[in-house]
Amino acid sequence: MNKLTLNKNFLTAVFAAAVLLSACDKQIDLAPESITTEKDALTYQKGTERVLGGAYLSLLDASKGDAFEIGDLTTGIATSFTTDFATGALDSRNSIVGSFWSTNYKTINLANVIINKLPKYATFDLSIQNQLIGEAKFIRAFAYFNLLKHFGEGALEGKMDNMAVPLRLDAFDGYDGSQNLPRATNAEVYAQILKDLDEAIPVLMNKFSTNVDQHSRATKSAARALASRVALYSRNYAKSLSYSDAVLADVNFKLENRVDLVFPINGMGARDISFSDEILFGFPVSWNKDVTQYKEHGIYYAYGFIKPDTTVFMKTYAVTDMRRSKFFPDAANLKRNMKFSHPELLDNLIMLRLSEILLNKAEAEANLNGVTAAAVDALNKVYQRAFANDQKPGLYTTVDFASKQLLLDRILKERRWELAFEGQDRYDMIRTGRAPNASLPSSKYALPIPQREIDITDGLIKQNPGY
């Protein structure tokens, strides 16, 4: 497909647009002073890009802050000022849990507007329409995966027939109780996520012309990377391996030589939003003196409210492992870690990166084929990168692992070290049969369905067991 001509500063412009779908009058609020209809918004490319930007912005809201941190603050790698999520002491009226539900469905609805309505109204180039629909499908898939991790009963434990969340695939046209949907199964939601991504991949861009677009809009490799993770979670190891290999073959992304290059501290006053070439997808929330500068990631690590654990977890890293010194600077007085390093120098929020894909490949390969050179090589690439050239340990070989389980244990240990403080530890532990902590019963792995959803559907949506 030919390279599409899109607004050079696409995300700078559209992240600023407050694009909200009105539930009652089917209007899209594009700016405080102007109201336009769906038809007006979707007829031309510029308006459609603004709606799409609103969907990206909504996905950021659904993925940042508490939604991001729950993956770490419940597992012991970080200390926290709250224990509710770590112990499951939540109820169905918890406002944070309610926001996880509402922000993701808001995102899904904005994506649905583009997916379902753009073919009806658009008058611009068909190939560009298809690409924008592909980006919307990526966004919808991401939001449904967020919901599945939070609310799917047993979704992380391979219980595919259990209940997940309602699959809303049509744009919201005003409340109609007869259109309420029950919860779909975990299997159905996993399948829809992969279907959206598989349909998006052929029409997405390989490469954008600007750094910020390349790393914060959906590309073919970003979609494949998300699919790699989703397939791994659903235990479809063959698919995860296939997606991973396709991402790793993309010359537009590369593993950094040093881990500190992946998380540069953004300079105050700098207008450029820098992303490492290792980043497959993230949100540009840098301090850039532009319209996105106040879109903070809301990650409490930067403020010291949640602190990386230095009593146990930090000490599991080798002394010469650069991640130990970079992620835990000044351990004696540690308040924050390098990944979210400064409350006033806003760091981009990274969601998918290449080292995870190598670990996905290693895990999928080991599950499929046992101890193989391919699995060990993928592990080595991440492990070796963590050390200075003159301090690198010896390469692992297949003879170092007497069984498939020993190799998997080592891969998962590396995953915990590499992806610490990136919101994944809770889900990795649950999906691999390990309790996040001793105080969290398995009946509370899934969060409670917000009571409002049960009430407004007259009980059509059922509560998760244990609440």
UniProtKB/TrEMBL annotation:
All residue ranges annotated as the SusD-like N-terminal domain in the record: 88-232
A Pfam family reported for this protein in Swiss-Prot or TrEMBL: SusD_RagB
SUPFAM superfamilies listed in its UniProt record: TPR-like
Compartment list: Cell outer membrane
Name the UniProt record assigns to this protein: RagB/SusD family nutrient uptake outer membrane protein
Classification via Gene3D superfamilies: 1.25.40.390
Family per similarity comment: Belongs to the SusD family.
Stored PROSITE patterns: PROKAR_LIPOPROTEIN (PS51257)
Principal place of residence: membrane
Boundaries of every RagB/SusD domain copy: 347-432
Cellular component terms (Gene Ontology): cell outer membrane
Signal peptide segment: 1-23
Key words, A-Z: Cell outer membrane, Membrane, Signal
